[in-house]
Amino acid sequence: MAKLRRTGASGFIESENDIAKGVRALRKACAIMRRVHEVAGDPPLRRSPTGFEGLARIVVAQQLSTASAGAIWGRLQTCVAPFTAETLLAESDSELRAAGLSAPKIRTLRALAVAVARDDLDVDGLAGLADGQVHEALCAVKGIGPWTADIYIMFCLGRADAFAAGDLALQVAAGHAARLGARPKAAELEAMAESWRPWRGVAARLLWAYYPHMRRSAGPGVMI
To answer: 92: exposed, middle or buried (C-beta count within 10 Å: 0-12, 13-18, 19+)?
Structure first.
């Protein structure tokens, strides 16, 4: 497989300086991003661990509030210690449910743990692959979809141009900021984000930071 050459801040988001560089580039190139930044300010760095733990945390957090995800993750770490594929597989479904996991998330975490334990998924080797290859490897695991792969590439691997066009909050925020009058679908948002390359990862962070401001200002009638 072709390997992605590490190019520093031009290809990876590793520090607040990288965020600032991306914000400057986006403000210069795009009126929508200027508008978003003026409302939301500088977005947070938001980096997460790589490997099995990083992937598991994304699965746990999906479709949950930050507070709920954090509480469940804390209980899961206590239950599965040390947090490895093998240790998770040794836990019963009842213990995992007691930590707060739903049945679909238990199935996904078990499928992920089996793939890692059997070396069907070289989770540590993902850092050396191009984004498309990471997507392919992750989505081959039952229960792992494009959104999970996008979030892993963005926050665990820190790729500067990663983007999650299927994320509902990004769609709503982008539609509002661009004054579209309707939430763009994933393909439409993907096309819109082409103009934000090679800093789509910073654009996503800006839109996520913009989303709560938009919700407060728009009130109950905001499009979703």
So the answer is: exposed
